[in-house]
């Protein structure tokens, strides 16, 4: 990064949020130690591969934050008035993310050897604490979002098998502990190969989304609709007896049967039917066991003509 050939003015420091409310004698001290510099577009300021020795204040331009690699999606922009590198500047560990100039950017930077100067202003320390709290909250939100995304099937928006394993371990323990039943439905779209062959794979994708949308609307908040494989779904029904689960299965089956055609982004398409296997959890049943029993019932539903509920 190039040092810029001009002097830092008080006016520059007053544009930075981190320095809001900091008294003038302290700003004058900082004015002497902050260096003006210029980053070219795409220039990398911070990388997890190298120690960072500076706190950066952005006067003009914009920086981008990337988590895993510079090729990955930008997760946050750092605009004029913001600062960058404050965490690695404070804890003297390598940065946890990449920070790169999105466009030519004018900055002020402070070297770690002057870190003591920051402690002269209680207001600055309070601003810094507030900023670090914001960063913690933001990274908590990113963790929650990525956790949620990791549990969701990208085509249909239903849960995936990873979620099923997690939720089964929780719900099976809870239901067994409270002496409540738990049931599972296993669904498979009927003659789906033929549907794909006749209407195209994209039409098949829309039909899978229709299944998830139609079934999802009829389930309770505590139920989990999971895409188990290509055109196979599992529905976990906590606190539900096998009799009630059969009724739910029948209601779901019938609701899809009634949709003769539906509007999709590629035009009108025919509906699909499903075959369903039902299984009740037995004491200490593993998920694999329970799925196997539901799968056997599903096999019987297919063998006896499809578009029916067995088990
Ligand atoms: N469009 C689409 N098709 C998929 C997807 N995943 C799996 N399939 C298709 O689903 C079809 C499943 O076919 P089969 O297992 O032979 O079963 P089926 O034709 O539904 O017959 P039955 O189950 O016996 O009623 C295959 O052709 C797969 O390619 C997907 O995400 N999108």
UniProtKB/TrEMBL annotation:
Cofactor(s) listed in the protein's UniProt record: Mg(2+)
A Gene Ontology BP annotation from the UniProt entry: negative regulation of bacterial-type flagellum-dependent cell motility
EC number of the protein: 2.7.7.65
MF annotations from Gene Ontology: diguanylate cyclase activity
Gene3D superfamilies: 3.30.70.270, Jelly Rolls
UniProt-listed InterPro entries: cNMP-bd_dom (IPR000595), cNMP-bd_dom_sf (IPR018490), Diguanylate_Cyclase (IPR050469), GGDEF_dom (IPR000160), Nucleotide_cyclase (IPR029787), Rev_trsase/Diguanyl_cyclase (IPR043128), RmlC-like_jellyroll (IPR014710)
Subcellular location: Cell inner membrane
A matching Pfam family: cNMP_binding
PROSITE patterns to which the protein is assigned, alphabetical: CNMP_BINDING_3, GGDEF
Catalysed conversion reaction: 2 GTP = 3',3'-c-di-GMP + 2 diphosphate
EC main group: transferase
Domain spans labelled Cyclic nucleotide-binding: 18-118
Cellular component, GO annotation: plasma membrane
SMART domains from the UniProt entry: cNMP (SM00100), GGDEF (SM00267)
Residue intervals of the GGDEF domain: 180-311
Name of this protein: diguanylate cyclase
Organism annotation: Stutzerimonas marianensis
């Amino acid at each position: 990064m190039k040092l810029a050939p001009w002097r830092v003015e008080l006016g520059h420091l007053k544009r930075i949020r981190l320095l809001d409310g900091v008294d003038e004698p302290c700003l004058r001290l900082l004015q002497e130690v902050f260096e003006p510099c210029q980053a070219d577009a795409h220039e990398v300021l911070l990388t997890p591969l190298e120690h960072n020795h500076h706190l950066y204040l952005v006067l003009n331009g914009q920086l981008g934050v990337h988590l895993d690699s510079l090729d990955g999606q930008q997760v946050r922009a750092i605009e004029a008035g913001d600062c960058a590198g404050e965490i690695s500047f404070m804890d003297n560990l390598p940065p946890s993310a990449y920070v790169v100039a999105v466009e030519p950017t004018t900055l002020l930077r402070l070297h770690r050897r002057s870190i003591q100067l920051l402690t002269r202003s209680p207001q600055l320390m309070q601003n810094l604490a507030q900023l670090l709290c914001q960063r913690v909250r933001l990274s908590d939100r990113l963790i929650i979002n990525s956790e949620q995304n990791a549990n969701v099937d990208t085509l249909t928006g239903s849960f995936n098998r990873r979620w099923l394993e997690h939720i089964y371990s929780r719900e099976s323990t809870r239901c067994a502990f409270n002496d409540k039943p738990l049931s599972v439905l296993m669904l498979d779209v009927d003659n789906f190969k033929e549907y794909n062959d006749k209407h195209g794979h994209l039409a098949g994708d829309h039909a899978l989304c229709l299944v998830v949308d139609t079934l999802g609307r009829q389930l309770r908040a505590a139920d989990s609709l999971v895409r188990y494989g290509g055109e196979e779904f599992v529905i976990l029904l906590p606190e539900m007896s096998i009799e009630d689960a059969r009724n739910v299965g029948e209601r779901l089956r019938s609701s899809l049967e009634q949709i003769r055609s539906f509007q999709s982004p590629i035009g009108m398409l025919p509906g699909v039917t499903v075959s369903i296997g039902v299984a009740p959890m037995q004491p200490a049943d593993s998920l694999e066991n329970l799925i196997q029993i539901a799968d056997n019932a599903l096999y019987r539903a297919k063998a006896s003509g499809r578009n029916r509920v067995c088990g």
